[in-house]
Amino acid sequence: MDLDVEATHRTWQTLTRPRIHTGEKKLLMQTPTGWRGPEYPTEPSPVPPTELGLMKCVYLADSRPHRDPTIIWGTASDAQPMTDFIAAESRRLNVLLSPAHLLIHAVAQSLTDHPHLNCRIVGRRVYPFRKINIAIPLLTPTDRQVFPVLIHDVARMSLRDIAEHLWNEARVRSADAASERRRDASRSPLLRSSLRIWRSLKMQVVLRGTSLSFAVNNHIRRPTNVINAQYNGVSALVNCLSFPGGAPPMLSFKPSSLPTNSILLTVTLGAPEWRATVVDRQVVARRMVPLFVKADHRIVHSHEIAAFMNTLCEYLTEPCRLKAAEPETAGVPDVTEFEAVCAPA
User: Exposed, middle or buried, 135 (CB in 10 Å: 0-12/13-18/19+)?
Assistant: First the structure.
């Protein structure tokens, strides 16, 4: 590949030129209906190019998302500690827990330990997020539609809070979908036809307006509202691919990349599967869960992803460590079974 020295020098001068920020930006406020504020939920000033380093600045020079400057790292984690912990905690908290809830909790704590991954890009500048916000896609069993759920400030939530929030979201969406189907069945043929036309026009607006919205969000710190907060304020996207009908073994996985400079970190956990592993120099069969992390090279290097994955795997294989990091849950009695699960072998 030929290197344009003059273009590279101009790009470097642009990146290192000091920028003057006028005034103190207003802090973003969170309301019960969602995010409200004058800008993205990031710090007011970007990370200086001198702190990013040479290679990250080179990747930032062409910040168009379709260039796909992503790194994917896959591994596997022992499923048995997760299964035992989830079963014991479900009985202790009287809440139905799942691997998705534990994964969200572990990703939030891992981002707390590695805050340089909790950021987004606007234009050619990197802005750290003020809080850790995680999105997860949920499948509605009523209409088989996938919708994203954004959880704000996950680092301050307990495992029980995360589970209750997601179960409430799933219940509300399923009830709304079922209610809409009942209303649609009672409508007249003319009204159903009119609604189909309206839904088709609305999807056409989405098809033609989304690309413009992504382009604006990638280069301008515009006001954040309830709608665009689903994409502008996401620290990480979490997938838990445990399908009810089962799936073949997952050897590799690349999550789709939206043309946005937010959601730069994606964590995917597959369903448990039997694999041959080496324990004390002996080959044994164990239930393992595939784990894949996709990160953006414009904000992170390979060794930083390795450190993040080490932390994440430690939380998943030793989930009792998450108890020390989460806030105290009032009114939850201690259970001997939970202490037995967390006791060192």
Answer: buried
